[in-house]
Specification:
- The complex is a heterodimer of chains A (113) and B (308).
- By secondary structure, chain A is α/β, with parallel strands linked by helices.
- Chain A contains four helices and five strands.
- Chain A has a five-stranded mixed sheet, covered by helices on one side.
- Chain A is globular, with a radius of gyration of 12 Å.
- Chain B is of the alpha/beta class and 308 residues long.
- Chain B is 23% helix and 28% strand.
- In chain B, helix 1 packs parallel to helix 2, helix 1 packs parallel to helix 7 and helix 5 packs parallel to helix 6.
- The longest helix of chain B is centred in the last third of the chain and has 19 residues.
- The mean pLDDT of chain B is 95.
- Classes of the chains: A alpha/beta (113), B alpha/beta (308).
- The interface between A and B is medium-sized, with 23 and 30 residues.
Chain lengths: 113, 308
């Protein structure tokens, strides 16, 4: 179960752990191919070249192993897709839910990475 | 600073902008379509489009992708997620500065910047968006399985989405500011016939409360002034659209009191060579079909201006 984006797909718990281990800065957009998620993937795809020090990734929200995102304490109370998690050195440094604009995403990237 | 000249620049890659682009590019005009987000506009927020003639039921996203591919196939250039840093529209050669690094000029500009969901603008709304407050039932409905939720609004979207949300929620309260609904009768009847739905009329929500997620709302009866609170797990807001016209405030383009662009029958604004199409302009019916019609009219008028 993977999403139709040009981002690096995380398809399992192991891949999630490996991505965090191999990259200092990771942004994961966990969603579906739905109206609130697609615009966020689009912004991430466009920002990849501007932020080479960040791994831009996605994960299908309904994948059973996406519980690594769904069950994060930082995502407690989230009731809107997508769940967007920013990791630095394997630790969550920011978590956002629902649609976000390019400006909102850039603000977080510049602040946490 | 990168510079390039086109026959026409279209601001907005929704149904209106893409249609205008299709007509212009097929008319041999060079066209740039700019969008501050991804192409598709409000269309991509529509889970299912069942009333677009000639197209069997499809998703708004799929329809928007087809329109974009069509526009590009005829020669339109499309730039998405741009930031418009400056605009000069009241000159023969219109000038649009993008991302502080590119300046585009053209003889004609079509503004098709669309609209967005209107927010209630009350305390707690920004903080709890995505944490119980939602503007998309299709996207977030399943987070509210067996929960108690409210739907705010009295139009077709509010009433229809309230009914659809009863698939998940155990109780849906429709909160509306008037004593009657603006929705079509069949939508009102469907909501009234649903046992899970109840109604609070003449009422405004005054604040949202909650720590990690929405826990309650405070609301005020507009006739009696009485205030009350209600425990809630979720709240879906469907109170219409706000035109995306803030960026025009200092350009001289005439807006009405609702910030919609004023146009004539040919969709020309008060500034020669500047046209407007779709949900950003003053109009009664906002549908994909009417946006496409606007795109057609403005595209053909723009061709006439370019070849004059």
């Amino acid at each position: 179960m993977i999403l139709s984006t040009n981002l690096k797909h995380i398809a399992s718990r192991d891949e999630h752990a490996k991505t965090l281990a191999e990259n200092e800065n990771v942004m994961v957009c966990c969603g579906r191919m739905g109206p609130m998620c697609i615009p966020v993937y689009g912004v991430m795809e466009q920002l990849q070249s501007q932020y080479p020090h960040v791994a831009f990734t996605d994960m299908a929200f309904d994948h059973p192993e996406a519980d690594v995102i769904r069950n994060l304490p930082e995502a407690r109370g989230f009731m809107g897709l997508p769940f967007v998690i920013y990791y630095k050195n394997g630790k969550v440094v920011e978590a956002k839910s629902s649609i976000q604009s390019k400006e909102q995403i850039i603000e977080v990237l510049d602040r946490v990475f | 600073m990168k510079k390039k000249t086109y026959d026409a620049i279209i601001i907005g890659a929704g149904a209106a902008g893409l249609t205008a682009g299709i007509y212009l590019s097929r008319g041999k005009a060079s066209v740039l379509i700019l969008d501050t987000a991804i192409p598709g506009g409000q269309m991509i927020l529509t889970h299912q489009v069942a009333n677009y003639p000639g197209v069997p039921s499809t998703s708004g996203y799929a329809l928007s992708q087809t329109m974009k591919e069509q526009a590009v196939s005829f020669g339109c250039e499309v730039e998405s997620n741009v930031s418009i840093s400056n605009m000069i529209l009241d000159a023969d050669h219109k000038q649009i500065e993008v991302n502080n690094d590119s300046v585009y000029t053209s003889k004609v500009v079509i503004i098709a910047s669309g609209g967005r969901s209107r927010m209630l603008q009350v305390a707690g709304e920004n903080e709890l968006k995505g944490r119980g407050i939602s503007y998309c039932a299709t996207c977030d409905g399943d987070f509210f399985q067996d929960k108690e939720i409210a739907v705010v609004g009295g139009g077709n979207s509010a009433l229809e989405e309230a009914v659809s949300l009863t698939r998940y929620a155990c109780k849906v309260t429709i909160i509306h500011e008037f004593d009657h609904f603006q929705a079509f009768d069949h939508a009102v009847e469907a909501a009234k016939a649903n046992d899970k739905i109840n109604f609070i009329m003449d009422t405004h929500i005054t604040s949202f409360k909650g720590k990690d997620s929405l826990e309650s709302i405070e609301y005020k009866n507009l006739k009696t002034g009485e205030t009350q609170s209600m425990a809630l797990d979720g709240c879906f807001v469907f109170i219409g659209y706000q035109p995306n016209t803030e960026f025009l405030k200092r350009t001289g383009v005439e807006l009405n009191s609702r910030d919609e662009i004023m146009t004539d029958e040919d969709l020309q604004t008060n500034i020669p060579g500047v046209l407007a199409a779709g949900d950003c302009r003053m109009k009664k019916v906002r549908q994909i079909t009417t946006a496409v019609a606007d795109g057609t009219i403005s595209g053909m008028k723009a061709l006439e201006i370019i070849h004059r």
